[in-house]
Amino acid sequence: MMKRKFCFYLYISIVMTFFSCNSANEVSDPEAPANTSAVLPIMYVNTENGAPVLSKDEYVVGTLSVVGGMQDSSSSSSSSIQDQPMKIKGRGNSTWQYPKKPYKIKFDSKIPMFGEAPDKEWVLLANYLDKSLLRNDIAFYMGGISNLEYTSCSHFVQLYLNGEYCGLYQLSEQLKIAKSRVNVGDDGFLLEIDAKAESEDITFNVPHIEMPINIKEPDVEVGDASYNYITEYLRQVDEVLFSENFTDSANGYTRFLDVESFVDWYLINEITKNADAIFYTSCYMHLARNRKLKMGPLWDFDLAFGGYHFDDPAADICNNPEGFWIKNVKWYSRLFQDPYFVQRVKDRFEFLYSNRDKVYSRLYSRHKYLKEFICDENSKWHQLCDDNKSSQHVKSLYVHEAELIENWLEQRFQWLRGQFSSLSQIAH
Predict the structure, then answer these.
(1) Facing residues of 213 across strands?
(2) Of 11, 202, 295, 310, whose CB count within 10 A is highest?
(3) Domain count, the chain
């Protein structure tokens, strides 16, 4: 199946690449790796006096430049930026401990990066744990074709920090409250179920969510009006959801939860079997005042798609394309007791199932694109193999990583389709 699809996608990709290469800006830099003659943008970050970026808390000032065109074949516009003042710091929780560091960038004014809506804040995802570098990109693509109202836009770049090549990064929109991002108005809320919340974070708990709920935005103080509003709302949701008459059309959970967002967020995380999405961490919700609570945005899929690499009991479960994962979360386990919710899941799953070839096409086009730069990435970080292997060998290993994802995902789709076909019996 994989070889057949890859031959088909090869044809598509050749056509796409032809148009992309004819419209892209060529990059020529004596310090750049040998493979940079294609359209992958190069981002140069230079800090003041070459200061290292060592902290997640303290910004380092500097400038940012981008050369090269946009990598997406659908666009031919340039994203050149010259010596733009900015600040940079580390980011992430567990990802910060790895050799390839993720970063957060903050400009002095709003900047339109790669044609996206202007904003001051952007993040550079390192994807160190993901040998394909593609898991977040594919999940974000699925979010883009879903009913979720916002999913972060992202673009691949080659990063240089103070003249040193740092590898392939995924420049993404920072999750934040804004009209062009999480649009909950001036008095809404962005929340994260976050087992890794730090002591200075403002968190609270509800009975049927085991991990702390982190109030990401706005800034609140314990006991102030905003804090009381959001904590009371979530506790009310939790109470109603687990009440005897939780399916009541007037006073049940649908009064408080946006069902469509809860369905699509669930399905994307279940299909990808996202390890952290069992209401552990990086599980976002948002609420506009006098509206319903919505799930999303999507975030943090570097361990999804069968890519859980840690040596613990969860690995065998997460990497197996069979078996439910998110459905066992207390809130979702309760929602699946409502036939209406079950039917919405089944309907939306069929939509995603019918569009799976688009997901595979995305996977293939992105993999083929990054393959031309993977040797430099591997020489820097050695995720695939030692750097004394031939470029052909490195590229073949990278192709294998993409094949593993597609084969795993197809098995996952087929298993879930069989399970969802009988969910009406489970729901009653």
Answers:
(1) 193, 204
(2) 295
(3) 2
